[in-house]
Amino acid sequence: MVVTKADNMTDMYASLRSNVSMLGQILGDTMRTHLGDSFLEKVEQIRKLAKDSRRGDQAAREQMLELLTALPDEELVPFAKAFNQFLNLANLSEQFHTISRNCDELVCVPDPVEQLLGRMLNGRVDQAKMLDCLKTLDIDLVLTAHPTEISRRTLIQKYAAIVDCLTEQENDQLSDRERQQINLRLRQLIAQIWHTNEIRRERPTPVDEARWGLSTIEESLWHAVPDFLRQLNDRVQQRTGQQLPIDIAPVRFSSWMGGDRDGNPFVTAKVTQEVLDRNRHAAARLFLKDIVLLVGELSMEEANDELKAYTNNSCEPYRHVLRSIRQRLRDTIDYLNARIEGHNPEVDKSSLIWQESDLKAPLEMLYKSLTDCGMRLIANGLLLDILRRLACFGIHMLRLDIRQDASRHSDVLAELTRYLGMGDFNHWDETEKQAFLLRELSNRRPLIPSNWQPSADVAEVLNTCRLIAKHPAKALGSYVISMAGKPSDVLTVLLLLKETGCSHPMRVVPLFETLSDLNNAAACITDLLDIDWYRGYTKGMQEVMIGYSDSAKDAGVMAAAWAQYHAQEQLVAVCKQAGVKLTLFHGRGGSIGRGGGPAHKAILSQPPGSVDGRIRVTEQGEMIRFKFGLPKLAVQSLALYTSAVLEATLLPPPEPKQEWRNCMQRIAEESVGAYRGIVRDEPDFVAYFRAATPEVELGKLPLGSRPAKRRVDGGIESLRAIPWIFAWSQNRLMLPAWLGAGEALQAASERGEMGLLQDMEREWPFFSTRISMLEMVYAKAEPNLARYYETCLVPKDLHHLGETLRQRLDLGIKVVLELTKSDSLMAHTPWNRESVKLRNPYIDPLNFLQTELLARTRKETTETPASEHVQLALMLTIAGVAAGMRNTG
């Protein structure tokens, strides 16, 4: 697949164009070898026609559609695969370009820490205050697996190998022979990718998802974390003359993979146990690799008195200690292997690395001895890297969160109280529930009878709580309660943990997800913190999770964003009054419609005082790969998070003016009305949605372990936020990411508030970030393609709704351009705009083909089902469009 100069961008992106062209050429050669010249010529013809069609050439569009609809069954899969893989290779080239030596200054990410330190230490922030804040930063990135990550793990590994080759190619000193070898390796990798099935045969299990998360750490973050901390230390030392502590860990990692059971019946206590064992196994295995290398490095004899005494004056004291650690790690791995295989071997835990101190104490002793003996240079090599990995990952690799719906907990108590003859807990009012819960939390006798035989669902909840009780606090993160809304939701979980023997104070975190829950969040937390028993339990720390996905699905992005902002402001005030430190947990998705977008901007747009050195954020689906999949990219992402949280803490944004608040409140009210007027009140909306998008077909894709719906028989309200967003991104209308916003902004303009909106966009980070995100989704939206889906797939009596939606999209684009005083969308971010343009000639044919395939599959009957070629090609078009759109769900 040849990519010409005219296909791409301006000359400033020459190195990117070169790599895109080279990889596309190799992909084309691969196809020619296995499918012949005629197939490749047809692919090229369709690509060029798609490009001409974008320029308004109606004849080119008609010719392209004729070629697509005439594709024989045996060419459907390779055709979809060709465009799919080119988009993946284009993504790869872009990712690499941001970390390339030849990266253009408009694309490269400048060192955000260096920039921030320069601003801070230029008289704006006291140096000691800055250092104290940096040393105590607590950024927890929570890896989640949802059905947005299309690419299989085996393909991701091959893509990473291609990046390694691109990196090697930048060496100007390579010989012709070495260049030939790299080119050969690239051809081999692309051939391997071409001959690998891109679509999983079966849905991944929760354990598969957890293993995918561990692979991201092993292949990237394990290397990136010490690299980032070394760079951070160097920047700080250059600016302040001080070094950072050896155990500094501004960023840590948690996971929902294997712990998130909200609406996922496949996540059981048994699964969670296996994931915890696998997490620990992965950590032990990676530490063992490091220790083996360190044994080879620390051959010196000189030691301080402590180490000499500990090793009985060994002639190689460092190796003496390390060999012991090495054996304990090997024994730990053997023990965990047996557990993962379903055995429960008897073992003396003191012979294993079972507590963090088992590894930390001897390594710190070695570090101190080296520095005491004048060998700091050696101490600050691999040994320091291991200590910093230990500070970040611990011996459990990832702290596992547990998430469950509030109703599952109350159902446990309802079944128990009925059994005990006390009535039905679910029928009590909030006051009665709290009185009962607090009485039992303070009662020393067990509440659960030993001879009680609960139902299967109740037993599963209790088994999860017993599992939590068995594991150390450092292996676990938070217990998140979905659809929480009342203090009793939190107290119920605390009672279940007490009754199942949990002795460590696990963080129990209410998740406020809907618009009404967000509006009630501060009142709920106020009531909780007014309870003396609960205040004692928190020990001065309160965590609250803000849901972006479901609030946006409930109210639209603009109203949800304002509700999230306002809830955070109120929660900050409530916790400050109570003398409690608040940690906000932001449940963001990858897409704009689910709270996604650039993390740096998102953090800096939070209300002043809401960060305060602490933050938890979900990193989801394909965004984990885009941000952390390559070590250099991961270093950039870690630096962006660290600098953003540091800046939001020490240089917080200004308090919004009252007139801005009033304007935003009016926008929120009008936008939610416009959004719900379509999604809830339009009688034809559900029928239109299911006809105009591949929503039904997405449910058949073997993407994630979790069902697409919370209830099988439910409608739009029961559909998870992810397939809701994913479906609309496939037909390119991107509706959930903008519906309601343009109408509300237009209403503000008609009230004569355009000048006020422009002031807000210029001076208020919260509002400017919202407008920037709107620009991005408007630029990605393709109303003409959405109209084509409608023409081919939607009954004519529903077409009126499509026309209405496209008119609203056009209205939103016009008002945003007026607000930003621009002639085109994303004029201030040319790289992002060109990135979108680059993909369109490759995404468009996939969309047109997808429409044809959807029409075919929907006509199938039990007697004449769609062929296997049609079904697989449809899946590939979905994967390809997702790759092209990037932040799909």
Q: Level of helix content?
A: 55-70%
Question: Rough shape?
Answer: globular
- End-to-end span in angstroms? 28 Å
Q: Which percent band covers the strand fraction?
A: 5-15%
Q: Give a count of the beta strands, DSSP E runs of length 2 or more.
A: 8
Strand order of the main beta sheet, please? Answer: 1-2-3-4-5-6-7-8
Layout of secondary structure:
Blueprint: H1 14-35, H2 37-54, H3 58-69, H4 73-99, H5 112-124, H6 127-136, E1 138-144, H7 153-169, H8 176-194, H9 206-240, E2 251-255, H10 269-297, H11 305-310, H12 317-340, H13 356-372, H14 376-379, H15 382-393, E3 399-405, H16 406-419, H17 430-441, H18 456-470, E4 476-482, H19 487-499, E5 507-512, H20 515-529, H21 532-538, E6 541-547, H22 549-555, H23 557-578, E7 581-587, H24 599-604, E8 614-620, H25 622-628, H26 631-650, H27 658-679, H28 685-692, H29 695-698, H30 721-730, H31 741-750, H32 754-763, H33 765-780, H34 783-793, H35 799-820, H36 830-858, H37 868-885
Parallel strand pairs: 1-2, 1-8, 2-3, 3-4, 4-5, 5-6, 6-7, 7-8
